């Protein structure tokens, strides 16, 4: 809301990149985290994380359809004016991807099958898993938690490890097929990044992850 206020005060349009957190709109519990999103002129959402879609399934939402005008292109062999006037489908007018695979269909099928309530339940589960993992890390003396998670990403690292060791732990777990962890730099230090996106993960899975990281740190 504060950013929206600043934009309004200066007559600037607000664009929100809600690539990761946008699907929180499906959750009645966590939707308030997106307060002020309705004041944006344009919003982008990437459904490949908390929408469980292919990586290319991104969406651009606009308040005013005239904002899409820059995407309008004419190619005589694809969308000649007389064909468009006659009612033939305008591929370039529907998507800049034209004849590429229609990933939006998969998103539409998911929404049709699960609905907002079903997707919201999956989002809630992943959010709860992130909090659960953070709780377990805080109770593990050998690990440090960067901060309580806001979405489903948890940053943590072995307590006495340097950045070189943290990077090596991540590579060891990845190349050994044991765990896929990201990496992020914050507070001048390197952190392991666990992004909880599998709603079928269990508390035992979280414990195993902690055990793997602890074991790798002591090698």
Topology:
Layout: H1 2-10, E1 15-17, E2 42-46, E3 58-62, H2 76-79, H3 81-85, H4 91-94, H5 103-138, E4 143-145, E5 153-158, H6 163-175, E6 182-186, E7 189-195, H7 203-217
Task: Write a short abstract of this structure.
This protein is α+β, with helices and mostly antiparallel strands.
- Quaternary arrangement of the chains shown? single chain
CATH superfamily of the largest domain: Type I PLP-dependent aspartate aminotransferase-like (Major domain)
The overall pLDDT, averaged over residues, is: 92
Number of strands: 7
Instruction: Note the main sheet.
Output: 4 strands, antiparallel
Tell me the name of the CATH class of the largest domain: Alpha Beta
Low-confidence stretches: none
User: What's the structural domain tally?
Assistant: 2
SS-based structural class? Answer: alpha+beta
Could you describe the 3D structure shown?
- This protein has 219 residues and is α+β, with helices and mostly antiparallel strands.
- It has 2 domains: 114 residues, Aspartate Aminotransferase, domain 2; 100 residues, Aspartate Aminotransferase, domain 1 (Alpha-Beta Complex).
- Helices cover 39% and strands 16% of the residues.
- It is built from 7 helices and 7 strands; from the N terminus they run αβββααααββαββα.
- A hairpin with a 2-residue loop joins β6 and β7.
């Amino acid at each position: 809301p504060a950013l929206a206020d600043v934009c309004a005060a200066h007559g600037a349009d607000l664009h929100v990149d809600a690539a990761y957190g946008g699907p929180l709109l499906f959750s009645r519990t966590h939707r308030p985290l997106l307060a002020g999103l309705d004041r944006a002129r344009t919003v982008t959402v990437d459904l490949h994380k908390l929408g469980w879609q292919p990586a290319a399934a991104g969406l651009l939402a606009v308040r005013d359809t005239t904002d899409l005008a820059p995407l309008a292109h004419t190619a005589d062999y694809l969308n000649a004016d007389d064909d468009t006037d006659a009612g033939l489908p305008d591929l370039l007018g529907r998507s800049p991807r034209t004849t590429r695979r229609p990933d939006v269909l998969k998103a539409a099928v998911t929404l049709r099958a699960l609905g907002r309530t079903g997707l919201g339940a999956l989002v809630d589960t992943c959010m709860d898993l992130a909090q659960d993992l953070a709780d377990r890390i805080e109770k593990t003396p050998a690990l440090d938690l960067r901060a309580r998670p806001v979405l489903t990403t948890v940053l943590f690292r072995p307590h006495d490890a340097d950045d070189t060791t943290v990077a090596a732990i991540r590579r060891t777990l990845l190349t050994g097929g044991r765990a896929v962890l990201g990496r992020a730099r914050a507070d001048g230090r390197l952190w392991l990044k666990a992004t909880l996106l599998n709603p079928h993960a269990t508390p035992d899975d979280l414990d195993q992850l902690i055990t793997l990281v602890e074991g790798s740190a002591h090698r």
